[in-house]
Write a structure and sequence with these properties.
about 675 residues; alpha/beta; five-stranded parallel beta sheet; about 50% helix
């Protein structure tokens, strides 16, 4: 007789309770407010827990779609929001008071926050506006200093820009207490070439400049100043060297606590807490073998999540194909799923800090903190962050650091898989249809925005707008907080261009130093560069003088890193370089080409507006009798667009896969020789 089987008792393993995960965002917005709204609602349905709004360049720099400078730029790198009606569309069927919204906006941050607040009031007509404001949660980036150093979407000079920032900070502390009025951005500093030490130092110097401005403005009492410090957040970068990046974040925590306690006397540890969100590094994403970007993104995410004591509050990840062009919704979903797998499938959030007591980590953190303190003191001795911007010191330091990084990559010292090592590859099914592997911005977006502005102006009360803008101008000439007049203008129906234009008339505009002149002799001097330098010299002699290269950035694209590195390498290769910085019209570039009698025009465009702006430059050169001056173009340019540009008369197109800058210099010499009927010479 068989024995009965014993009862099995299955004991489920006990697991620690998980910490609440970070806010998960995807940086998104394109074409139109309606299209972006649909994308946001789709992403929220997929489990995204916060919104991160990308605005187009006209909105970021204070122009309406009908401005000549907006041509080709509307809806390309973000969503156009020229007036309150478009802000309504952007958040249609999305309850603003229940959202945590990050808005990547700087020079016009005050204006976009006002539009956001008014749109929230309209969604909640039964509530008092003050009650609505107290429910709003989110962040305006609002860090103008890094705009002078990297992104280039500044409008006004440092003095007036800091005044606008301080006004937003003071207003939100009193009226929107759950809002982060500024995101001090070290992210863009790393994208511009900053070392970890520079990223720490320059971001913290920026924070000091802002806090000093708020304190000295007298708009916040001494008792409330701790609240100001407690609402300052940071937006950082994390590169693929994830151990170093994790230690950098621990150094940030340590230094911020030190600064806020010693410089500002904040006694509440909660107010001194280093609060940051992150988008991991886009600088290191490659066009070559772009599938490798997925593991790069994961490693970078680990750098800001592994360490509980320095963990990000919010994370947004780029997409694997960002170096190719505008990611599609599926690509953004993939990046969101990377976060969700780490947060919900792994046991990361079940443990205390993994690195406490590590001698290796403590030593690296101490090294980074010491280097940052020394660089911060150097900036302080110059008079602070603003003085270091105006003198060009910080910009020159970043350009030099970036040039040194490029030299390490080209020399093979810094290895990039698929770019300068392990370059053999099987056909990639993800990019088999390269033009289908990215999303094209809606070509009708610009006309839709133009029509929207026209209808908006036709339907509004012009007298109310005129009065509101007059008040804004009057208040700008005093020390009155400008947020109040800005809200009046938003409710009256003013446009983004009108708000910024009114302040331009009072404050004037500003052109930041390029940093190119100070970054001397930072590239390697190998055989290839020596050969190109000799070809530059010989070609110049044949044409009767030194070769002159004009590097131009047409349109509103302020991402000048590539243009600056081309300018530095061209100068090291023996060219006379004319580089006037960002935000030039095609007509201004043509005028400079005529005045300087250049041998070649190089255009750098990363905003996707190349198909509009490059033909305008070529047409202008032809009209000026410079049809024999070759034009080369660099940027994130799909193959189909590159073929069309080459067919329309462009001599060469360079994209991120063309990482060899010395080879690009050789190509420019080839273009000049071909345009002037000279023999090709010995190729490099």
């Amino acid at each position: 007789m068989s024995q009965p089987e014993p009862d099995l008792q299955i004991v489920a393993p006990t697991r620690p309770e998980k910490d609440r995960p970070w806010v998960m965002r995807t940086y998104a917005g394109h074409s139109t407010a309606a299209a972006s709204n649909a994308l946001y609602r789709t992403n929220l349905a997929k489990g995204q827990t916060g919104l991160s709004v990308a605005f187009d360049l006209p909105t970021q720099t204070g122009y309406d779609p009908d401005s000549p400078l907006s041509r080709g730029e509307v809806g390309k790198v973000g969503v156009p929001v020229p007036h309150l009606g478009e802000m309504r569309r952007l958040f249609e069927d999305i309850p603003i008071t229940q959202m945590n919204t990050s808005m990547t906006i700087n020079a016009t941050a005050m204006w976009l926050l006002a539009l956001y607040q008014v749109a929230a009031e309209e969604q909640n007509p039964d509530l008092d506006p003050t009650e609505v404001a107290h429910q709003l949660a989110g962040t305006t980036q609002n860090d103008i200093i890094k705009e002078y150093l990297s992104r280039g979407t500044y409008v006004f000079g440092p003095e007036h820009s800091l005044r606008l920032i301080a006004d937003v900070v003071a207003y939100t502390v009193h009226e929107i207490p759950k809002w982060n009025p500024i995101n001090i951005c070290s992210y863009h500093l790393q994208e511009a070439g900053a070392t970890p030490t520079q990223e720490l130092a320059y971001a913290l110097c920026t924070a000091i400049a802002v806090l000093d401005q708020v304190r000295d403005s007298g708009q916040v009492s001494e008792e409330d100043f701790g609240k100001v410090v407690g609402r300052i957040s940071f937006f950082v970068n994390a590169g693929v060297r994830f151990v170093e990046e994790m230690c950098k974040m621990r150094a940030f925590v340590q230094l911020w606590d030190e600064i806020t306690r010693e410089r500002y006397g904040v006694t509440d540890p909660k107010m001194r807490r280093f609060r940051y969100g992150v988008q991991v590094n886009s600088l290191g994403l490659t066009e070559a073998q772009p599938e490798n970007n997925v593991q790069r993104i994961v490693l970078e995410m680990l750098g800001v999540t592994l360490s509980k004591d320095a963990r990000a509050r919010a994370v947004q990840l780029p997409a694997w194909n960002e170096a190719l062009g505008l990611p599609r919704p599926w690509d953004q979903q993939w990046s969101l799923r990377l976060q969700q797998v780490l947060a919900f499938e792994s046991d990361l959030l079940e443990h205390e800090d993994l690195f406490e007591g590590s001698k290796v980590v403590e030593a690296k953190v101490a090294e980074l903190a010491a280097g940052a303190r020394a660089e911060m003191q150097r900036v302080e001795d110059m008079g602070g962050a603003i003085a270091a911007v105006e003198s060009g010191y910080m910009k020159q330091a970043l350009v030099a650091a970036h040039a040194a990084r490029r030299a390490r990559i080209e020399g093979g010292e810094e290895k990039i898989v698929g770019v300068n090592v392990f370059t053999t590859t099987e056909p990639n099914p993800l990019t088999a249809d390269l033009d289908g592997a990215i999303q094209a911005a809606d070509p009708a977006a610009e006309q839709a925005a133009l029509d929207s502005v026209s209808r908006w102006k036709a339907d509004r009360d012009e007298d109310a707008v005129t009065a509101a803008l007059a008040r804004l101008a009057a208040d700008a000439q005093t020390d009155t907080n400008l947020m109040h007049a800005t809200l009046v203008a938003a409710r009256a129906g003013a446009t983004t261009g009108e708000w910024a234009g009114t302040l331009r008339e009072v404050f004037g505009e500003f052109r930041a130093p390029t940093g190119v002149g100070g970054a001397v002799h930072v590239t390697h001097t190998g055989t290839a560069l020596a050969e190109v330098r000799e070809r530059v010299r010989e070609t110049g002699a044949e044409l009767g003088g030194r070769l002159r290269l004009l590097v131009g950035k047409p349109g509103l694209d302020g991402h000048s890193n590539g243009a600056e590195q081309i300018a530095v390498r061209a100068r090291d290769a023996g060219f006379e370089v004319i580089y006037q910085g960002i935000r030039l019209t095609p007509a201004e570039i043509v005028a400079a080409a005529v005045a300087e009698d250049v041998h070649c025009v190089g255009l750098s465009i990363l905003s996707g507006s190349h198909m509009s702006l490059v033909p305008d430059v070529i047409a202008g050169l032809n009209a000026a009798g410079l049809d024999d001056v070759p034009v080369v173009v660099g940027g994130i340019i799909p193959d189909s667009d590159a073929r069309e540009l080459l067919g329309s008369g462009v001599a060469a197109v360079y994209t991120p896969k063309d990482f060899g800058m010395t080879e690009i210099m050789g190509g420019i010499v080839d273009a000049i020789r071909a345009a002037n009927g000279l023999e090709a010479g010995v190729p490099v």
